């Protein structure tokens, strides 16, 4: 059986992926999470974790936020670490700009997960049509929910309701899910990047 290992910047990403993967790939029973203590810890410890994983038939997904950095630079740095660790086939993904962009791309999920009313009707508003462009998605989500959003608990509650059919307005969320699906089918190129990117 294939093991799918997620290497993540923060606990809230684990909460989100745990909820999504239960619906995206219910047949995958061996999913593991390695959670770092922020991006600096991740960038320093990622190579060691990848090198140290010795279980056969393992696929890796490396995921972190873009934050204020250049998306291409972040992704290239992750790809290079994976290459140095002997894992050039690891899938690398970056949330543009923050994990909360995924939630702003599906306000119906936020409404259901946090048990609020009236959020889904705002999805066509300028800010939420393409939430990956927001520089302050976390702050925006806290403001939009009147302070009800808390990183870990909110991620856990919202994840169960996030649409996984490509309808999320966050392109980076959809690209992450498509990459995971292709990776588990083995459709990556020689450089570890998902075919079709």
Task: Explain this structure.
The chain is α/β, with parallel strands linked by helices and 197 residues long. The protein has two domains: 3-98 and 170-185, Rossmann fold; 100-159, no CATH class. Helices cover 46% and strands 12% of the residues. The chain has helices at residues 11-24, 39-52, 71-84, 100-104, 107-113, 126-129, 137-144, 151-159, 171-185, and strands spanning 3-8, 31-35, 58-65, 91-95. The chain has a four-stranded parallel beta sheet with strand order 2-1-3-4, with helices on both faces. β3, α3 and β4 form a beta-alpha-beta unit. α5 (107-113) crosses α8. The two termini are 27 Å apart. The relative contact order is 0.18. The model is unreliable at 187-197 (pLDDT under 50).
The sequence of SSEs as H and E is EHEHEHEHHHHHH
- Low-pLDDT segments, ≥5 res: 187-197
N→C terminal distance: 27 Å
Biggest sheet character: 4 strands, parallel
Shape type: globular
Structural class: alpha/beta
This entry's quaternary arrangement is single chain
Mean pLDDT: 93
**Fraction of residues in helix:** 40-55%
Work out the count of structural domains.
2
Q: Provide the CATH topology of the largest domain.
A: Rossmann fold
